[in-house]
Amino acid sequence: MGQHATVKTYRSLQGELANAATRGELFLQYQPIVDMSEKIIGMEALMRWDSAEYGQIPPAQFIPLAEQSGAILYMGDWALDEGCQQLQQWSRIPMAAEWTLSVNVSAHQFNTAHFVDYVVHAVQRYGIAPGRLILEVTENVFLNSTSSRQQDGFRRIREAGVGIAIDDFGTGFSSMCYLRDLSVSRIKIDRTFIENVTENKKDQGIVVAIVMLAHALGLDVVAEGVETAEQLKFLKTVGCSAFQGFLFGRPSDVSEFLCSEFL
Ligand code: C2E
Ligand code: MG
Ligand code: MG
Ligand code: MG
Fold first, then answer.
1. CA 244–ligand 2 middle distance (angstroms)
2. What backbone phi and psi angles, to 5 degrees, belong to 115?
3. 198 near 226, Cβ under 8 Å?
4. Residue 55 burial (C-beta neighbours within 10 Å; 0-12, 13-18, 19+)
5. Domain EAL: where (predicted)?
6. Which of ligand 1's atoms lies nearest the C-alpha of 226?
7. What are the pLDDT digits (tens) for 125-165?
8. Which residues contact 186 (CB under 8 A, 6 or more apart)?
9. Domain containing 45 — which CATH number?
10. Is the Cβ atom of 17 under 6 angstroms away from ligand 1?
11. At residue 261, does pLDDT exceed 80?
12. Cβ(86) to ligand 1 under 6 A?
């Protein structure tokens, strides 16, 4: 669509999106998350939309549209199901049996009343170890919502054994209160802090502080958007121990990461 988008195409896109999952136009790609020795410890599921009408549209365009129309709710349920199914399959593959899977959850979806039950039910239905599922939410989730209800949602998810990561950490409403009051398990350092981390002293300071904060609170910390060996070296030096980015693999079909095992 790009800059030539009209109100008409916008509406039409939203209409297409409403049926995308039932038409089989949505799929997930997977991007590895690695440890200090660059061994894969998990994957992040990233949604893709291959529209019959418009071709491939990037998430930066269709996710906001889906949030406005409400389609994100059923799309999010679809992604969670699909992700849990993938986890179930991985549990039978030796190299993948321990991998975690991170699924992105929009604020709107997270804050619906049925969300926690849906997650718990999905974990049971697919018979997966709950600790292998991680929900990624951005700090947007803390807007427009009462803290007690949310606190309860976070608590129930964590009690079920499912992980919660704060995605794009540092770019939203980085209130220390939610880190204190809610049971989060992981922080993902936004890639805008990683991009220039080898040269920019401010980025270095922020990254060091986030890593220390995570350690002090007993949280996992993952650096997003790691593209160069120099960035990786810096991140290791300051105590970051999990990484994601093009340096280790682009989002791809899962077979990309598994095929060598099967052959
Ligand atoms: P995110 O969850 O922060 O995902 C990471 C994004 O960074 C992905 O973009 C990924 O392709 C990109 N990325 C990973 N490594 C690198 C790198 O080294 N360099 C650069 N430049 N980029 C890198 P993608 O796939 O376009 O997704 C964009 C956003 O769309 C995601 O950001 C997430 O917020 C949202 N999204 C994707 N799938 C879903 C979903 O199933 N549900 C919801 N609610 N949102 C989703
Ligand atoms: Mg994410
Ligand atoms: Mg992110
Ligand atoms: Mg992001």
1. 10
2. -60, -50
3. no
4. exposed
5. 10-263
6. 18
7. 999 999 999 999 999 888 866 678 888 999 999 999 999 99
8. 134, 163, 164, 165, 166, 219, 220, 221, 222
9. 3.20.20.450
10. no
11. no
12. no
Closest atom of ligand 1 relative to the 167 alpha carbon? 3
Quick one: pLDDT band at residue 4, thresholds 50, 70, 90? low
Residue that the structure tokens 């990254």 belong to:
207
32: DSSP letter: E
Distances (CA, A) of 115 to 69, 107, 129, 186: 18, 11, 19, 20
Q: Which ligand is nearest to the CA of 165?
A: 2
ipTM associated with this complex? 0.98
Instruction: State how many domains the chain has.
Output: 1
Residue with tokens 């709107």: 108
Q: pTM for the full model?
A: 0.95
Domain range for 105 is 2-262
Long-range contacts of 167-174 (CB under 8 A, 24+ apart): 167/104, 167/136, 167/137, 167/138, 168/138, 168/139, 168/224, 169/139, 169/210, 170/206, 170/210, 171/139, 172/138, 172/139, 172/140, 172/142, 173/139, 173/140, 173/142, 173/143, 174/139
Point out the ligand 1 atom lying closest to the alpha carbon of residue 136.
Answer: 2
* Beta strands, E only, the chain: 26-35, 40-51, 55-57, 100-104, 133-138, 163-169, 186-189, 220-223, 242-244
Is the minimum distance from the CB of 168 to ligand 1 under 6 angstroms?
A: yes
Asked whether 116 lines ligand 1 (CB < 6 A), one says no
What is the per-residue pLDDT across 180-202, written as a single tens digit (0 to 9) for each? 988 899 999 999 999 999 999 99
